[in-house]
Amino acid sequence: MPHTVKIIRSADAEKQPLGPLSARQHFTGDADGLPVLTGIQISQPGYRTKLHAHPYPEYLFVLEGEMEAWLQGEEASPTRLGPGDMIVLPANVPHVFRNPGTTVLRHLGIHTSPTRIVTNV
C-alpha cells in the first residue's frame, strides 16, 4: 500500500468565525481521520477568549502579532508571547488568551484530540 501525505494550504482552508473579532482556519482533525486537531486562529486587537478548559493539553504557537495568556487565578501576571513563541496549556486547567496588541494575532493551535472539546467556565 503506497504512503500518502496530506497537504493543507492556508489559502484554501475554510475560515470559521469565532465571533466578531476572530476566526479559525481548520487544518486537521475531526472528519479527516487524523488524531490531532490543528488550525490557525486569526484574532483582531482586543480579542479575548472566555475562561475555558480542554480535557487535553493545548499548544499555541504565535506566528504573528502578540498574545497574552494566563491560567485561572493568574490574571494579574499574564505571560506575553510573540512570533516564534509557544505556550503549552495543561489539560483540565481553565485559561484565557487575548490579543493585547495593535495588529492581528495569528497563531497555530494544536489540540491533542481529533475533536475540539471546550468547557467554558
Please explain how this structure is put together.
The protein has 121 residues and is mainly β. The protein has a domain at 14-39 and 65-120. Helices cover 0% and strands 42% of the residues. It is built from no helices and 11 strands. The protein has strands at 15-17, 22-28, 37-43, 52-53, 58-64, 67-71, 79-81, 86-89, 95-98, 105-111, 119-120. The strands form 3 sheets. Strands 1-2-3-10-5-8 form a 6-stranded antiparallel sheet, with no helix packed on it. A hairpin with a 4-residue loop joins strand 1 (15-17) and strand 2 (22-28). The chain starts with 14 loop residues before the first strand and ends with a strand. The relative contact order is 0.29. The model has no long low-confidence stretch (mean pLDDT 94).
Global Rg? 15 Å
Q: What is the helix content?
A: under 10%
Q: Strand order, main sheet: write it out.
A: 1-2-3-10-5-8
Q: Give the amount of beta strand, in percent.
A: 35-45%
Largest beta-sheet details: 6 strands, antiparallel
Number of helices: 0
Termini gap:
46 Å
Structural class: mainly beta
The topology string of helices and strands comes to EEEEEEEEEEE
Summarize the structure.
The chain has 121 residues and is an all-beta fold. Helices cover 0% and strands 42% of the residues.
